[in-house]
Automatic annotation (TrEMBL):
Full protein name: Penicillin-binding protein 1A
Pathway annotation: Cell wall biogenesis; peptidoglycan biosynthesis
Keywords: Carboxypeptidase, Cell shape, Cell wall biogenesis/degradation, Glycosyltransferase, Hydrolase, Membrane, Multifunctional enzyme, Peptidoglycan synthesis, Protease, Transferase, Transmembrane, Transmembrane helix
Keyword Chloroplast part of the UniProt annotation: no
A Pfam family: Transgly
Highest taxon in the source lineage: Bacteria
Protein's GO biological process: cell wall organization; peptidoglycan biosynthetic process; proteolysis; regulation of cell shape
Compositional bias (Basic and acidic residues): 1-20
Record-stated family: In the C-terminal section; belongs to the transpeptidase family.
Region feature (Disordered): 1-62, 671-690, 708-781
Organism whose genome encodes this protein: Rhizobium tibeticum
Compositional bias per record (Acidic residues), positions renumbered to this chain: 21-30
Ranges where the Glycosyl transferase family domain occurs: 132-298
GO cellular component entries: outer membrane-bounded periplasmic space
Length: 781
């Protein structure tokens, strides 16, 4: 018992020998440090674990959350690297694959630029450029410095720093297009654009893009930056069929790229983005708005200052002319038609020096438009043509129609029409070669040749008249009699000798100009009268050289023409044709202070009206009519054509000292045979009218040809069937419609009568038809 009591009060031993359990320095074991057995110990351990578990979970959660974020980033980086490696491998594979489909780099070469034909006037100024590009190539240092600056600023600002491909530009374009949702910017450099233009098709495929990059890298290794830029500027498309800055500058500003100002350079640079949509010929406002953007970009990049921007904005280019407008393009087309026959195929840039005087060309175009604008509509005349040449045949001005932009058909060169009475000088010249003189007398009276009965314009007759008077009044009956005297073959031979190249029909109606000829060849044949009897072959090409002038490919040889008329006949024909202007049907063509000669011509129902005349300086032919053959309202050669001829010739001779025509307006005789006709002309002193021949009536003349009878209806061959009229070119280049030409000139009863000139109304005081009186018949008026 006692033992149990002591046991109950047992004091645990202590290392220090004193009871200080509450002292902080005592060493003791807590429940967690003891190895206990039994349920009581488990409960203690479980309780301790529960108190520490939330804190561990919180600490683990924080560790796991931080580790997951950085792990995700690490994962992204990892897979990006993996994707980049595979993408690089794939791109390299594509490059190798598409590169293998290209020719070997050792065979790469810049393709030749399509050859350009530069056509210039006598003063060296450019008339037009012909060829695929539309303009010549010029060196970078020769063009306006604003042009390359504007192109680099708006198209490739890092051109001089990248290696052919601009990664920064590509990234910028990608981001911009991605944010806007559509294509706004392109990432191609100027080098890439040049590579595409030189070697590749415009299709948008991965293969083409890869090849473009490879070619751009090759260009950068092969050429300098300036060379690449020059090639680009001379080949890039600027709209309106203009390739290169020179073609575009002449197309839109009518000047060389050497002379382009800042505003114009900005407009050109703006066109590259969308040449057709931004063309100033199509939408001037859009073109100018784009030019403003280019100017601002140039300022931002330091190429120009604010003051220069203001100046450029005040120099906004005017609206461009319509595509290829101006009569000079008729000349350019004529040149291009003739070049293959002179030098063969054009394989390099060449320069064609022409005989054209640009001042005369503009005046010729203006004169036709003035007359058409004033009287064309009310007289149903819609078209006109003009050709003017000097005594050597050099064409100084040529206008093929009213407006080249509306119709490119050249009515001065390509079209063939009946010349009407303007063909009569060849009939008269043939008569002089056979021995007649300007004073030979014929009877202006009704005459019948087969089934053909030619009549004068007014259906009046003058009785006995001299050849000079008959030509001045354009009497049809006398011309018909002369063909009988000459013989159609002789007339045709003379016309061909003087320069008519078209086929002429050997029939009686040739006296009235029924065989069709071109205005150019007719005018050239007249020049033989003007120059004293030498052939004047119409020509427009003077010389052809390479672009640098180092090689002459062609030079004309028309400086030593053959004589085709005797001096006496040329002088007499000039004097006779002076009467046409001074007293006859061509009074509207008179020139103050200048001797002038010429002849009017009008075809059936006024379908065609012509005036061909000359001074000692120029021979000029003018035609008025309609492309579809529609008759005009009583328009004769002495009307609209003579007026246009007079306006042009006054302008062409302004400031020149008047000089007389060959022969000085006096009749003369050749004491010897002319060498061209069958009979010598009656002898006479130069400048003195020869005596009248005995007999000189039509009866006596015909008696020597056909016998005593003057009825030649049975001796002269029947007139052929009426020839079909050569159709005119339609205004807009479509199929050529046949023209239904009604012949109602009063030449007989049958439809098979030859068409002919209906003559020219004889000018009379007050504008009334002149009556033929008995005194007129007696005096031969």
């Amino acid at each position: 018992m006692a033992g149990r009591g002591k046991s109950r009060d047992r004091i645990e031993p202590s290392f220090s020998g004193r009871d200080d359990r509450d002292d902080d320095d005592d060493f003791s074991l807590d429940a967690d440090d003891r190895v206990v057995r039994g349920r009581s110990s488990k409960r203690v351990a479980s309780k301790s674990s529960r108190t520490r578990q939330p804190e561990r979970r919180r600490r683990g959660r924080r560790e796991r959350e931080g580790g997951s974020f950085f792990g995700f980033i690490r994962l992204i980086v990892y897979w990006c690297i993996v994707f980049g490696i595979w993408a690089g491998i794939g791109i390299a594979g594509l490059v190798v694959y598409y590169g293998s489909r290209m020719p070997s780099a050792s065979t790469w070469a810049i393709p030749e630029r399509p050859p350009n034909v530069k056509i210039t006037a006598v003063d060296g100024s450019v008339i037009a450029n012909r060829g695929t590009t539309g303009g010549e190539a010029i060196a970078l240092e020769d063009m306006s410095p604003y042009i390359p600056e504007a192109i680099v600023a708006i198209e490739d600002r890092r051109f001089y720093s990248h290696f052919g491909v601009d990664p920064i530009g590509l990234a910028r374009a990608f981001v911009t297009n991605l944010t806007t949702g559509h294509m706004v910017q392109g990432g191609s450099t100027l080098t890439q654009q040049l590579a595409k233009n030189l070697f590749l098709s415009p299709e948008r495929t991965l293969e083409r893009k890869v090849q473009e990059v490879l070619l751009a890298l090759w260009l950068e290794q092969k050429y300098t930056k300036d060379q690449i830029l020059a090639m680009y500027l001379n080949r890039v498309f600027f709209g309106s069929n203009a390739y290169g800055v020179e073609a575009a500058s002449r197309r839109y500003f009518n000047k060389s790229a050497r002379d382009v100002n800042l505003g114009e350079a900005a407009l050109l640079a703006g066109l590259v983005k969308a040449p057709s949509r931004l063309s100033p010929a199509r939408d001037p406002q859009a073109a100018n708005a784009r030019a403003q953007v280019v100017l601002q970009t140039m300022r931002d990049q330091g190429y120009i200052t604010d003051d220069e921007v203001k100046t450029a904005m005040s120099q906004t280019p005017a609206k461009a002319k319509r595509y290829w407008s101006g009569a000079g393009h008729y000349v350019a087309d004529m040149v291009m038609d003739q070049l293959p026959g002179l030098i063969g195929d054009v394989k390099e840039d060449i320069v064609v020096d022409t005989t054209i005087d640009k001042t005369l060309e503009k005046r010729a175009e203006q004169s036709l438009n003035d007359v058409l604008g004033k009287d064309g509509a009310k007289l149903d005349a819609s078209q006109a043509a003009l050709v003017s040449l000097d005594g050597t045949g050099a064409i100084r001005a040529l206008v093929g129609g009213r407006d080249y932009a509306d119709s490119q058909f050249n009515r001065a060169v390509t079209a063939k029409r009946q010349p009407g009475s303007s063909f009569k000088p060849f009939v008269y010249a043939a008569a002089l070669e056979k021995g007649l003189t300007p004073f030979s007398v014929f009877n202006d009276a009704p005459i019948r040749i087969g089934d053909w009965t030619p009549e004068n314009y007014e259906k009046k007759y003058n009785g006995e008249v001299t050849l000079a008077a008959a030509l001045a009044k354009s009497l049809n009956t006398v011309a018909a009699q002369l063909v009988i005297y000459d013989g159609p073959d002789q007339v045709i031979k003379l016309a061909h000798r003087l320069g008519i190249e078209s086929e002429l029909q050997p029939n009686a109606s040739i006296a009235l100009g029924t065989s069709e000829v071109s205005l150019t060849e007719l005018t050239g044949a007249y020049a033989a009268f003007m120059n004293g009897g030498y052939k004047a072959t119409p020509h427009v090409i003077r010389r052809v050289t390479t672009a640098d002038g180092s090689k002459v490919l062609y030079e004309n040889t028309y400086d030593n023409p053959p004589r085709v008329l005797s001096e006496a006949i040329a002088a007499n024909m000039n004097t006779m044709m002076m009467g046409v202007i001074n007293q006859g049907t061509g009074k509207s063509a008179k020139l103050s202070g200048w001797q002038a000669a010429g002849k009017t011509g009008t075809t059936q129902n006024s379908r065609d009206a012509l005036f061909v005349g000359f001074t000692s300086n120029l021979t000029t032919g003018v035609w008025f009519g309609n492309d579809d053959g529609k008759p005009m309202k009583k328009v004769t050669g002495g009307g609209l054509p003579a007026k246009a001829w007079q306006e042009f010739m006054v302008a062409a001779h302004k400031g020149l000292s008047p000089a007389p025509l060959f022969g000085n307006g006096q009749f003369m005789a050749d004491p010897a045979n002319s060498g061209f006709g069958d009979q010598p002309m009656a002898s006479a002193e130069p400048g003195v009218a020869p005596p009248l021949e005995e007999p000189t009536t039509i009866g006596s003349i015909l008696s020597g040809v056909f016998g005593e009878s003057t009825d030649v209806s049975g001796r002269y061959p029947q007139a052929p069937d009426r020839p079909k009229r050569q159709p005119m070119a339609p205004t807009h280049g479509g199929p050529i419609p046949p023209a239904d030409v009604a012949q109602d000139g009063g030449y007989g009863d049958g439809d098979a009568l030859p068409p002919g000139d209906i003559g020219e109304p004889e000018p009379s005081p007050g504008g009334r038809p002149r009556r033929t009186t008995l005194l007129d018949l007696i005096m031969g008026q």
